[in-house]
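Hi V.,

You were right to ask for the full record rather than a summary. Here it is.
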Amino acid sequence: MIFEEFKHLKQEHDKNNPFSNFYFYETGESFYVEPAFYTQLMGFKEQHKERFPEILKRMEEVVKSNKKVVFTANYETPLTEAEGYIYLEITDITDPLKIYAEDKSRGSDYGD
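Predicted structure:
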């Protein structure tokens, strides 16, 4: 899959993690983006278009500081298995920026 937000980075295919995109910075740091994380990221892009560049910048800062990151939808059951990598969810990026998802779902109108 091509994720436009990361097309400026070197991408490799990891045969052990075929469903996640694997990226490298020229300085050697690397990260994976799982498909479900990317879907969540696109939700933030839609809801917070004006602040979306901050989210991408924060992701870059986190990767540069930690060197090896897996961006996952759920760190308890990640799709990607990579030794030596830290696992982060979308809220690990957005909450410190005070950018929150709007939960527009609501309970049923039907009572028992």
